[in-house]
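Justification of computing resources. Each target in the renewal requires a structure prediction run like the one illustrated here; the chain below, 232 residues long, is used simply to show the kind of job we budget for.
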Amino acid sequence: MANTTPITFAPAFPIPLVFDVQERIEQLRSYLDPSNPLYQPEPQHINIKAAITLYEDGKLDGLQQVYIMDGKVVSWEVVMRHQYAQKYVYGHGPFGPMNHELRMLLRLIPDLGGDGTVHGIIAMNDTGSDILTIFDADVPFLGNFQGYAGWDGIVTVGGAGGIVGVFPKLRVQVQLVGDDNLPWSDWINGEAIIRPVGPGIPRLSGYRIREGLYFATGPGNHTLAVSTTKAG
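Resulting structure tokens:
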């Protein structure tokens, strides 16, 4: 009998980053100190001071994407019009239109011993990651691992700042779903690292889905389009 239990999707950020406004204000002030190695160029000071004022007045919480230009909050469209001009633009907030989420089903590969158990996850679409991120909290939802032949040992993962960590590597399959939770892509073979859940740490999509699907963003980067064919 088919399993009729509705699939729920684990969020891309299982433990959301708690944003400390006062800490951010102090960090911004340090950027105005010439003795700080991270001291910012003088034309940027007007934007940094504006951001500090917005934080102090409670008009900026650090969770929404905000753009500040010439000391004023501006829209993304204004930023785009000035992207080739000699303007300093200061972006605030870890989320917003610069990020896109992908809803997908995750399972162990049946040909390698997976029992077909399906787990719904959300991952951040990231063109810079070359491997899918899943969390240790996802593992119990992937069924029986006994005899599974998809373990690929331990790998070292690096980022822009150097080595991130050493994590187990696992072969899995993913299938993208729509807002109605219905699958629309084939099952895609790929690899994933298993890392501990931590504050502000997201699942990243990896590159395997880009080998089988086409991705595009429209003007302003607000919408992510995904298709099985180049013509959409």
